[in-house]
Write a structure and sequence with these properties.
The complex is a heterodimer of chains A (68) and B (229). Chain A is an alpha+beta fold. Chain A has one domain: Alpha-Beta Plaits. Chain A has two helices and four strands. Chain B is 54% helix and 8% strand. Chain B has a two-stranded antiparallel ribbon. A two-stranded antiparallel sheet of chain B has the order 3-4. Chain B contains nine helices and five strands, in the order ββαααααββααααβ. The longest helix of chain B has 27 residues. The chains are: A alpha+beta (68), B mainly alpha (229). Chains A and B meet through β1, α1, β3, α2 and β4 of A and α3, α7, α8, α9 and β5 of B.
Chain lengths: 68, 229
C-alpha cells in the first residue's frame, strides 16, 4: 500500500474505544494503557479508514510533516 | 501475492509483512449480546447475567488490561458495528461535538449511576417488604408490563433487581441503536458509561502517561496543521 501525503491525527477527546485500531490495515494504531489511541506515523499510510470509522469523529487526516 | 496487498476483504484480517490475523473467537461476542436480550424475554432472571458486562470491563481496567473490553470483547459494540456497518443501517454522520465532550460523558455517567442507585434502592425496598413491581422501565420513564416473569422460584428482591437491571440494559441498547442510526455505527461507545468509567480508571492508574499523552497527542502524530477530514 502506497503512503499518501496525509497522515492521521488523533484528537485529545479520543474515547479509546478501539474502532480505529480494528480497521487500520497496517496496525498503526494502538491504545496503550486504555487512555487514548496512539498512532505510529511511520506505519500510517493515510488511507483514512480510521477517520471514517471513529465514532467520536476525533481523527482527521493532515499533511505529513516531512511532505512540507 | 504481493506482501503489501490485503489477503482478503475482511476488515478484521490484517496482513502486514506476511503475518495474517484471522477472525478470533472474540469477534463473535455480538451473539452473546443478542442471546442476553432474548433470554431476558423468556425469563427476566437471566438479566442477572448482565452483571458480567458490568464487572468484567471494570476488573480488566483495574487489573491493568486497559480498555481491552471495549477494544475486543464488547458484544454490544460489535452488534452496533454489524448493524450500522455491514447492514448499512447507520447514516454514518459524525456525531455532534457535545457528545464527546467530557462534560457530557461524565454527566451521562453520573446520571446513569444515579438511576442505577435508584434501582438498587427499589431492590432494597422489596427486600424490606415492599411489593414486587413486575415492570421493566425503558428510557427511565416508560413502564413496560412484563408478560413473562416466572419469578416464583426466587426471593422477590432477587426478581426486583432483575427487572430493574434488564430495564437498564434495554435502555442502553435502545440509546445505542438510536445513536447508531443517527450517527456512526458505534456512536454509543462515545458516551457509554462503562467506557467512560474504564477510561477514567485507566487515566487514574496511569496519571503520568495520561498527562504526557494529553500534551503530545496532537504534536506527535506527524501533523503540521489540520486540513480537514
Amino acid at each position: 500500500m502506497k503512503k499518501s501525503l496525509k497522515v492521521a491525527s488523533i484528537g485529545r477527546e479520543c474515547v479509546a474505544c478501539g474502532c480505529c485500531a480494528a480497521v487500520c490495515p497496517r496496525g498503526a494504531i494502538q491504545i496503550p494503557y486504555g487512555i487514548i489511541a496512539r498512532l505510529d506515523e511511520e506505519k500510517c499510510v493515510g488511507c483514512g479508514k480510521c477517520a471514517k470509522t471513529c465514532p467520536a469523529a476525533v481523527i482527521t487526516l493532515v499533511e505529513r510533516r516531512e511532505a512540507l | 501475492m504481493r506482501k503489501d496487498m490485503p489477503c482478503c476483504r475482511d476488515y478484521t484480517c490484517r496482513k502486514e509483512g506476511g503475518s495474517v490475523k484471522k477472525k478470533r473467537w472474540s469477534d463473535y461476542l455480538w451473539i452473546v449480546e443478542l442471546l442476553y436480550l432474548f433470554l431476558g424475554l423468556f425469563n427476566i432472571l437471566f438479566a442477572w447475567l448482565g452483571m458480567l458486562f458490568f464487572t468484567i470491563p471494570l476488573l480488566i481496567a483495574v487489573f491493568g488490561g486497559g480498555k481491552a473490553y471495549c477494544n475486543r470483547y464488547c458484544g454490544r459494540g460489535q452488534l452496533l458495528g454489524l448493524l450500522g456497518g455491514r447492514w448499512k443501517l447507520s447514516r454514518n454522520a459524525p456525531p455532534p461535538k457535545f457528545l464527546r465532550s467530557p462534560w457530557f460523558r461524565y454527566g451521562f455517567l453520573t446520571f446513569f449511576m444515579v438511576m442505577f442507585g435508584l434501582m438498587l434502592y427499589s431492590t432494597y425496598a422489596v427486600f424490606t417488604g415492599a411489593p414486587l413491581k413486575e415492570t421493566v422501565t425503558l428510557l427511565w420513564v416508560f413502564k413496560l408490563p412484563w408478560q413473562w416473569p416466572e419469578v416464583g422460584m426466587v426471593a422477590p428482591w432477587f426478581a426486583q433487581f432483575a427487572f430493574g437491571f434488564f430495564g437498564v440494559m434495554l435502555t442502553s441498547t435502545v440509546l445505542g441503536i438510536v445513536t447508531m442510526l443517527l450517527f456512526r455505527p458505534r456512536s454509543w461507545c462515545v458516551y457509554c458509561p462503562m467506557g467512560t468509567m474504564t477510561q477514567g480508571i485507566c487515566r487514574l492508574k496511569h496519571r503520568k502517561e495520561a498527562a504526557s499523552y494529553g500534551r503530545t497527542s496532537q504534536k506527535d502524530s506527524g501533523a503540521s496543521e489540520t486540513s480537514g477530514q
